Amino acid sequence: xxxxxxxxxxxxxxxxxxxxxxxxxxxxxxxxxxxxxxxxxxxxxxxxxxxxxxxxxxxxxxxxxxxxxxxxxxxxxxxxxxxxxxxxxxxxxxxxxxxxxxxxxxxxxxxxxxxxxxxxxxxxxxxxxxxxxxxxxxxxxxxxxxxxxxxxxxxxxxxxxxxxxxxxxxxxxxx
Length: 175
What we know:
By secondary structure, the chain is an alpha+beta fold. Helix content is 57%, strand content 14%.
């Protein structure tokens, strides 16, 4: 099958987003290091800026797996930045919430992020940034509307069961 010019451009967008994501994570880690935090911790703390949320809700909102958010939230809890509370809407899914120490840490993170964002944004035309936001939202919406299931919300059904063994994956027929 021959690629269209639009699919080539879309592929370049994907590759640039991958490169940008890597830079944002490494820059975020460097920005958070003086506060004893990482980009992953920053994401979870930032998601908890609002009222308590379940780990699954944070994962869906941030495009992360529930398991990775759970690991990070558990580390934040061990450091006294997050606590878990009963969830009136769900017996097993606890609500993660910022502790006072977590709030202070997020406030310090926010201060650093604002200074950094102001520095970077001063080098970019605001209209270009608004156009980039619109384009990225359109790409996300096109992905949401595609036939491919979104891995964070709906798992593709396999015709067989997958069983993990040491380093190999075996597929067994369900017939």
